[in-house]
Amino acid sequence: MRWARPASEFHRVTNSMLYDTSNIFAKIIRGEIPAVKVLEDERCIAFMDIMPWSDGHTLVIPKVQAMGLFDAPPDALAALIKQTQIVARAVNAAFQPDGLRLVQNNSPGAGQTVFHLHFHIVPCYNDVPLRLGNAVMANLAVLQEHAQRIRNALT
Q1: CATH of the domain spanning 2-154
Q2: How far apart are CA 31 and CA 152, in angstroms?
Q3: Catalytic residue among 11, 57, 116, 118
């Protein structure tokens, strides 16, 4: 069974690549490219996914050089999950979906495409399929409106 690999093998697979400081999330952290931010503190940033799977799809990333779960410092993981919970509550309040999906992929075999640790907060709506394989670039004005709804729910 594929899912029954020992943890040491996952660690080896994850560490077979070096952290790429030019990845898109590293550039967002450094302010080199824009993002429609929802929340930021000294440890994490939450922002709207540019190719959302559903309305309200938000990403939360730590401000550490970690490709995934296996190479992140425990204190960074603690801060990340805390912020993910705060933002998920706000997304839930702002969009009132029928459900909420949290996604965190590790390595290409799991579907990871940006090699910086991150959580997807994905609102799910009955009878509305997720745009997983056919997500398109979102309209910036719509993303800004969605971010404002989430920021309003944070207060």
Answers
A1: 3.30.428.10
A2: 23
A3: 118
